[in-house]
Design a protein that fits this description.
Helix content: 40-55%
Protein name: Response regulator
InterPro entries: Bact_response_regulator (IPR050595), CheY-like_superfamily (IPR011006), Sig_transdc_resp-reg_receiver (IPR001789)
Number of strands: 7
Keywords: Phosphoprotein
Largest sheet: 5 strands, parallel
CATH architecture of the largest domain: 3-Layer(aba) Sandwich
Pfam families: Response_reg (PF00072)
Radius of gyration: 18 Å
CATH superfamily of the largest domain: Response regulator
Shape: globular
Organism: Roseovarius atlanticus
Oligomer: single chain
Number of helices: 9
Strand content: 5-15%
Order of helices and strands: EHEHEEEHEHEHHHHH
């Protein structure tokens, strides 16, 4: 590995930029959620790298070792809990390891898998993000002295939201049932939470509940597909 950021900080964090010197790998399939984290890293002084699935994350980690890894628990090729368990037992271990999900009930599972902390979606509070990352790190990584708590709310570019909608639309066109449909419901749940899109969130919940009962509701899938298309065409604002 050619990146030793997790062994030592290259720059000293400050009260204004408390994550200065850190490299954060974000394993997240939503472009919108990842864009929010990118903006928060930029405001906080951290560098960011992104992987959108377990395979991509493992490829990144075979080349370099970041200071912090943030892992979404629902990924297209498996559970983020598996990656957390791998990283928690790896030697040398990354310094900070956090789970990320819109389901707060998953926090215990992330910690049990070996995470140092957990971040809830929607993740749009700069202060909550900074505090969550710092809490997962040793004291030596934290800025010295008092630090003002930022009241900033982060709003990603709506184009990132449309990218997520296009991704979901393509999956819905190709797969109207089966495990892929379960993944789409999970994916859209996280995106809807991140964008505070309450109508889409309710639709994904309805689909997930029906799928949990072993049903493949054609009408529900069609309605969800129409909602996604509405958002792509910008008839529904976020």
């Amino acid at each position: 590995m050619d990146d030793n950021d997790s062994l030592t900080l290259t720059k000293t964090p400050t009260a204004r930029r408390p994550l200065l010197g850190l490299t954060i790998l974000v394993v997240e399939d939503s472009r919108y959620a990842c864009e929010a984290i990118r903006l928060m890293c930029l405001r906080s002084g951290a560098r960011i790298r992104r992987a959108d699935c377990l395979r991509s994350a493992r490829r990144h980690l075979s080349v370099y070792r970041p200071s912090v890894v943030i892992v979404d628990l629902g990924l297209p090729d498996g559970s983020g809990l598996d990656l957390i368990a791998e990283l928690a037992s790896a030697i040398p271990r990354v310094t900070g390891l956090l789970g990320l999900s819109g389901n707060s009930d998953m926090a215990t599972e992330a910690i049990n898998a070996g995470a140092d902390g957990f971040l809830d979606k929607p993740l749009d509070s700069l202060a909550a993000f900074q505090q969550g990352v710092l809490a997962a790190l040793p004291e030596t990584y934290r800025p010295a002295g008092p630090r003002a708590v930022s009241q900033a709310r982060i709003t990603p570019d709506p184009m990132a939201y449309r990218d997520d909608m296009n991704h979901a639309a393509n999956l819905l066109d190709d797969h109207s049932d089966g495990p892929v449909l379960d993944y789409v419901a999970q994916f859209l749940d996280g995106v809807a939470r991140s964008a505070h899109d309450t109508a889409l969130l309710q639709a994904t919940k309805d689909l997930a509940e029906l799928r949990a009962r072993g049903r493949t509701p054609t009408a529900t899938v069609k309605a969800l597909t129409a909602m996604v298309q509405d958002r792509i065409s910008r008839r529904v604002a976020i």
